[in-house]
Amino acid sequence: MTYAARIHATGDADAFVWERVETGPPGPGEVCVRQTAVGLNYIDIYMRTGLYPVSAMPAVLGMEAAGMVDSIGDGVAGLEIGDRVAYGMVPGAYAQLRCIAADKLLRLPDAIDERTAAAMMLKGMTAHYLLYRSYRVQPGDPVLIMAAAGGVGLILCQWARHLGATVIGCVGSEGKAELARTNGADHVILYRHEDIAARVREITAGEGVAVSYDSVGQATFNASLDALRPFGVLVTYGNASGPVEPFSPAVLAPKGSLYVTRPTLATHTATRALLTEGAERLFEVVENGAVAISVNQTYPLSDVSRAHRDLEERNTTGSTVLIP
Ligand SMILES: NC(=O)c1ccc[n+]([C@@H]2O[C@H](COP(=O)([O-])OP(=O)(O)OC[C@H]3O[C@@H](n4cnc5c(N)ncnc54)[C@H](OP(=O)(O)O)[C@@H]3O)[C@@H](O)[C@H]2O)c1
Q1: Do domains 2-121+270-323 and 139-262 have the same CATH topology?
Q2: How far apart are CA 173 and CA 147, in angstroms?
């Protein structure tokens, strides 16, 4: 027996029930993890509201956590009881104890504590694939980052700067602007008041950006396209303002033979090789200090409703960690 935050139906932030659930023993290929820190992600909101489907009700939401191996199922090699581990993009994280396929786990380096790990596995591996795979950032590239002071956003700003990019961050308030600047943004656009594409043209002397990393979706999609240079890439990877409306690919031609991609971390971690490549690069930049992980909010996991409200109402910055 353990406690978990479950939803019994989709709904608003009050949909969670903190209740006792059955867990384990681990099946073949699985381990049970005693979780000490759970990451909050915007995808948890999409699942809670029903924008993204959940497989069955009641459902334990949450995709990212860290903790210690508590018990080990048959056929698992390379992990021992007590090992510190973490994961991202595996549903079922809002729990004190959970069983999980062992091949989804990464053993944590000594230098990375569990709260930091829970704050960065999903968000940091997302930043990795965005910067290395969706569009491979080159030194000198001007790049545009939406929600630059958010969880993924602060990691992206620092990592893009580390790769030599000129970082233009879009944020919702002056306070967030300051935070984006101290985390690597060379220029900041207050996109609630300013015209994104016009400001980008001003900053880039008319050229436009090589790539727009757009997690805001509906509200910024067209501005992202208009901010790109010829052959530029729009990576639309989230829907914080709502899903992007259907559009005609024909619009991409006159705007400069543009590219649009809509990736998910699920594909980018689908094999052990893809997963470990992303995790190793992430551990490296965190361990060498190129990227600092900001845990700017913590809540008891039993109070996850409040955390969801704060994230949804744009009141958080950086990463949020829930304590089981
Ligand atoms: N496709 C993938 O593989 C993948 C993986 C991870 C995350 N994501 C996406 O990346 C985004 C960031 O995730 P996160 O967990 O780090 O969240 P987050 O960025 O910390 O929070 C979302 C931010 O979006 C901005 N926003 C703009 N319009 C909004 C609106 N109408 N309602 C709410 N927020 C709005 C807000 O910042 P401002 O106030 O500064 O505008 C808000 O703080 C999410 O869209 C998520 O779905 C995608």
Answers
A1: no
A2: 10
